[in-house]
Amino acid sequence: MTDRVPGIDPKLMEILVCPVSKGPLRYDAERQELVSERAGLAYPIRDGIPIMLPDEARRLDEEGAQP
Amino acid sequence: MADGIRIFDRGLLRKRRDRAAADFAAHDFLVREAAERLADRLDDVARRFPLALDLGCHTGELAAILGGRGGIETLVQCDLSPVMAGRAAANGRPTLAADEEWLPFAAASFDLVLSCLSLHWVNDLPGALAQIRRVLKPDGLFLAVMLGGETLTELRQSLAAAELAEEGGFSPRVSPFADVRDLGRLLQRAGFTLPVADTDAVAVTYGDPLRLLADLRGMGETNAVAERRRGMTRRATLFAALSGYRERFAGPDGRLPATFHLLTLTGWAPHPSQPQPLAPGSATCSLADALEQDPPQPS
Fold first, then answer.
1. Which has more pLDDT, A33 or B10?
2. B243 touches A at CB < 8 Å
3. pTM score of the predicted model
4. A11 touches chain B (CB under 8 A)
């Protein structure tokens, strides 16, 4: 379902989806985020733990504000 | 959930759990008791569950008690509290933060979903059960223990009586709990087959009611009802509640009982191999014929 992410069990990545859209996630290595394009949300990975909480996700439409 | 009934403040619950994580081991007796019961139930099922989910893992108590039981090869752990999840991750199992109301797993992912004392804080229980059923593979098993029924009835009665006497009204201070009679129906409505819900009372006794409150706080289980009264409980009210607790409920030895009702839920994701009801009208002999047959005579 999702890219490989270093430090996270591939078995978990296989089944992990966006909790809101249930769509696939893309790994952003630089920001350490799992990005759901469909929901427009990016979920942080902290200390190797994906934080799949909609409240904690960054909204992608705010991305343009910071160059 | 975006709209609908909001009974619990999930953000507050998360903070309570985040805060409780550091010293959880000092107050985790109830979670370990419930985890033992889950593990026993799992032992009764003659099946292997290679990929399992611990939904609401706290700091990893269930994983420690399960060991390798149930033929579990991979146990994914998740908790609403990122801090709890961080502590659970120390056992080396794949771990994440996730909300029971927003499951981040693809359909038909798991052979088994376990949940140990977490579902009693869910606002939309039918919705959460439907999501659990969705992430189970066909013929996958859902096994959960949750608090319910008359849990903490002594505390609830004492607080309500004291608040009425001291302040002339009362607010919800102990969560509303699901009833075992409703849960079987909820499981069925969520699409589980062979649903079973049963209840078991666990009586704990305390010398000092403040210890009970300390344990509840230590488990991150204090009031997260959205309509709770903001601000501190008045000292006089709390004092009246605790002395009322002692007067009404103390046993002959002076110790105070606190009752927890553990509800156990079992349900399977549908699969053609499971027992199926026959189509109405498909019977080949009538009940009347069966009843007319002479009963076997005792010899």
1. A33
2. no
3. 0.87
4. yes
